What we know:
- The chain is mainly beta.
- It has three domains: 119 residues, Immunoglobulin-like (Sandwich), CATH 2.60.40; 55 residues, no CATH class; 84 residues.
- The protein is 7% helix and 39% strand.
- Strands 1, 2, 3, 6 and 10 form a five-stranded antiparallel sheet that branches.
- Strand 15 and strand 16 form a beta hairpin.
- The longest helix is centred in the middle third of the chain and has 14 residues.
- The N terminus is likely disordered.
Amino acid sequence: MNRIAKFAVLLLLPLAARGAPVMPYGTYLVKGAFKGGYNTVLRDFGSASVRTQRADGTIIAESAITSADAEGFNFVLQIPVASQVTPKACVVGESLDCVFLTDEGEFAVANALQVDTPINVGILTINYVDVETYTNSLDGAVVEIPVAYINEAQAYLDESMPGTRYNPWDDYDNDGISNYGEFVSGTHPFDESDYLYVKNLTPEGEQFALSFEHVGGHVYVISAANTLANPAWAKRRVSRTAEGAELDQVLAEGTDGEPGETVIYITPAAGASNEFFRVEAQ
């Protein structure tokens, strides 16, 4: 299927507060990833950039889009936060427009970026392409999928399952992964042998080495829980090597869209008698 562009940004912890009531007292460090079809992190942007601005055009922050780091981020925005509105600083609750800039011009992004309390951590996904919105009638979950991706899937359905309309909540290949899950992970929704799974978990010294089947260019997070009975999954930091830097998420290496294997290292929680780990594509 064709590669489809989309944004995904992660709001991380701000810098320390700095005093004066009407001056910036905190800064949102916004790290994000500009993504493409099959939810892969794009790697070549030329002179493209991302910026946030007010409705009147006042630019608050801007960042070039660069090569992705180990966590899959390829741009960084610093948004100053103050106790009162200033020409260059925002207040909590303020909504900012997001704009994608290329050599061909400026392109507004559908979703806005809302400024939150500097101590909070939040995730905001911004789509740069035409998307179709689906709502799950069972739990009310709402997802967005690029129209071009849906059209490709529908063309396959028209040929192999005439009369069937694309539904992200179905599982056409009966591999236990919903069609939406297949879109997020980049696996094939009509191939039962193609899905995200954990291959091995082995103790190595004071750590566990966890390996899983990946799709190149995708981003993965690891969660842990002490039980599988009503588990309380919590994200865990991991590293690419036994002594490597800890990461909040991992960008799969290799050719975009191609299967491969990722190995990450996890330090067990102190005092935990049992731990279960889960791998999720983002």
